[in-house]
Design brief:
This protein folds into 2 domains: 172 residues, Peroxisomal Thiolase, Chain A, domain 1, CATH 3.40.47; 155 residues, Peroxisomal Thiolase, Chain A, domain 1, CATH 3.40.47. It is 33% helix and 23% strand. The chain is built from 11 helices and 13 strands. The strands form 4 sheets. Strands 1-7-6-4-5 form a 5-stranded mixed β-sheet, with helices on both faces. Helix 8 runs parallel beside helix 9. The longest helix is centred in the C-terminal third of the chain and has 22 residues. It is globular and about 60 Å long. The chain starts with a strand and ends with a strand.
Length: 335
Amino acid sequence: MFNSKISGLGMYVPENVVTNHDLSKIMDTSNEWIVERTGIKERRHIKKGDGNSTMMMGVKAAKIAIERAGISKKDIDLILFSTLSPDYYFPGSGVLVQDKLEIPTCPAMDIRNQCSGFIYAVATADQFIKSGMYKNILVIGSENHSGGLDFSTRGRAVTVIFGDGAGAAVISREENKKKGILSSHLHSEGKFAKELSLIGPSTNRWVPEIIDANNPEDTSYYPFMNGQLVFKNAVVRFSEVILEGLNHNGLDPKDIDLLIPHQANLRISQFVQKRFGLSDNQVLNNIQKYGNTTAGSIPIALTEAWEQGKIKSGNVIVLAAFGSGFTWGSTIIKW
């Protein structure tokens, strides 16, 4: 069996910066209200005509990751694309990336696990490499939230949280069994599926049905979040799955060099940091700049950490996510 490692990282966010003050001009909110509840100060949104989409942002991040991995795009054996906001109902965004990058007939798979999507994709890539089936796997997390949010006061509790962006990683074979991705730990609890969801449009309720109803009070085609319930579950599941990963590898919280949580809410991250007694230098948060980019948040943060020299050879890196489904997971890496 082989081990696997992250051999290249890349990220892309749109140039269009949307501040809390910008949102306060179109809905009943304020910078203070948003910062107090989420920690977010600004986020990036796709702007009409800028050429971006879920796929296109993923392509831009992927090109950087492939170059940094020191391989050719033709060396990619598998594409895993994690998103909750695909370009189309079908086909998936993975094959669109494949076409845009002009990668030959390798398999492409979309992973629809929302906030936990990148963790699930990394775990999938890790197993394909450890089995010997593939050598280099492109993993992308990309989201275009802004195209489907309710920018009225009615939707502010959800809308102020989310931003657009993409991150990518190339995961490759590693001969040293003591380095690379040590383990991943995945969970879900479907009884909470509708507590963070987008119910319509869907195959249960197609777009024409919504349009024909002409009901301005129908909010089913906007994201819904039971914020308090999500928060309460997140702080518990984050802690549990991080500890599960540490225990599996014989590690303690003090062994963590850098924890990169899914950027769901700064308050959740701060709670988990306090729970494990970690210093500010041991936890990376960039939700203040980008908001919650769901499947894109961990690879964006991981790329920034690497670019800023916060990740060094031999470091223990912990990735963790919790979100819609409910789904959650962690990955333990020896860099």
